[in-house]
Amino acid sequence: GVVERRLRESRYVACDEYTIADMAIVPWLRAPERQGVNIDEYPALKKWRDAILERPAVQRAVQVLADRRRATMSDEQRKNLFGDAQYAKR
User: Fold this and answer.
1) Torsion of CA 16, 18, 19, 24, to 10 degrees
2) What is the pLDDT of residues 1-43, one digit of tens each?
3) Contacts of 63 (CB under 8 A, 6+ apart)
4) Which of 12, 49, 66, 84 is the most buried (most CB within 10 A)?
5) For a pLDDT cut of 70, what percent of the chain falls above it?
6) What is the Cα–Cα distance from 40 to 60, expressed in whole angstroms?
7) Mean per-residue pLDDT for 65-88?
């Protein structure tokens, strides 16, 4: 609701120019349903989000993320990232 109210007044979150604030917030809104949010209830936010996601640089970044998610991890990498090794004292 806070961002919705802000975007009713401004083209972007921090000011009338695209800034790091927009870049930092948009990943949280790529799939709002995962957070139990119906984006259709926030029309200004939805318009802003859709415009940001149409930016060529954002599309490239999303593709890089998708490619990295598809990359295979070794068993050791997976253990270090998701297993008990991440909690081990060093």
Assistant:
1) 120
2) 999 999 999 999 999 999 999 999 999 899 899 888 999 999 9
3) none
4) 49
5) 99
6) 25
7) 80
- Give the closest residue to 45 by CA, choosing from 28, 61, 58, 62: 28
Tokens of 90: 């060093």
Q: For residues 14 and 57, what is the distance between their CA atoms, to the nearest angstrom?
A: 19
Output the average pLDDT for the chain: 90
Q: Report the alpha-carbon angle 32-33-36, nearest 5.
A: 100
1's CB contacts (< 8 A; 6+ apart) are: 42
Give the span between the Cα atoms of 19 and 22, in whole angstroms: 6
Identify the helix (H) or strand (E) that includes residue 48: helix 43-53
pLDDT confidence of residue 66: 87
